[in-house]
Amino acid sequence: MPRYKLTIAYDGTDFCGWQKQEPPDPDDATKRITLRTAQGVVEETVQDVLREKVIVMGASRTDSGVHALGQVAAFTSEPIEDKGIGWPESRGTESLVKALNSKLPRDVLVRSAEVVPHDFNPIGGAAEKEYTYTIECGPIRPLWDRRYVFHTWYELDLSKMQQAAAAMVGEHDFAAFAQINHGRTTTVRTIFGCTVERAESATDGARFVIRVSGNGFLYNMVRIIAGTLMEVGRGKFAPEDVSEIIASCDRTRAGPTLPPQGLRLEWIRY
After folding, report:
1. Residue 24 has what pLDDT?
2. 3-state secondary structure 28-83
3. Which of 101, 154, 161, 246 could staple 196 via S-S, CB 3.0–4.6 A?
4. 10 and 93, same structural domain?
5. Is 160:207 a contact under the CB 8 Å cutoff?
């Protein structure tokens, strides 16, 4: 029974997040609505290609509208070769990638596949993840890549944002950077790196990429970090305020939760 690890990219604009969701139908309590999710689409495609019922487990539950370049998922196949069921190792992972991509919709792409040990757990085995958040500031809104960038009219000070980002690094209680009712037993997380870089812009404005890596993230944590750094950049907070905000564990002290389109899961390390 081979177990396969997939590295997946997707445009999250038209997905209700990664995780499968079937909320109750408001018009009929006896029925449920199947929302379009990245997990649901990938799992359905894997089952179609393998002609086998499998569960595709993903590493990170990205929210509605959030993108991914390096989402990781895994499934186990039980091949019955004489019936053409499943995917035996002998068929190869390159052929698996081609078969899946030939059937996936255009907003999802399997970038790679590999055989992993039977106990590979994409959630519990993750040691580090990196997200980026992209902000464009200036008088002209982005048009062609508006699905992937958050625009603000404020002018932002890169140097101050970089100073504030450095305060995020380390093990802290990030309760001030988590949505209320986040559902986690602890809000302590370790941030390995937090930087702000200038990026190329298609307009006359300035574009900044906030890059955050850590051992795990709370619900909306990166979007709140980005909102807080934006407030530093426009002068509402001073860079040195960030350490006090972290220590306060008070969500009302931090910046806003920025919209999902600027957020992208870059990679997951095991």
Report:
1. 82
2. EEEEECCCCCHHHHHHHHHHHHHCCCCCCEECCCCCCCCEEEEEEEEEECCCEHHH
3. 161
4. yes
5. no
The whole-number pLDDT of residue 182 equals 64
Q: Cα–Cα distances in Å, from 153 out to 114, 142, 158?
A: 44, 11, 15
Catalytic site includes residue 63? yes
Q: Domain span at residue 15?
A: 3-116
pLDDT band at 250 (very low <50, low <70, confident <90, very high): very high
Cα atoms in the 13 Å half-sphere on the side-chain side of 104 = 24
Amino acid (1-letter code) at residue 86: G
Task: Give the predicted TM-score (pTM) of the model.
Answer: 0.94
Q: Quick one: pLDDT at residue 25?
A: 74
Other CB atoms within 10 A of residue 193 CB: 14
- The one-letter code for the residue type at 116 is V
Task: Using the 3D structure, point to which of 72, 91, 116 is the last residue of a domain.
Answer: 116
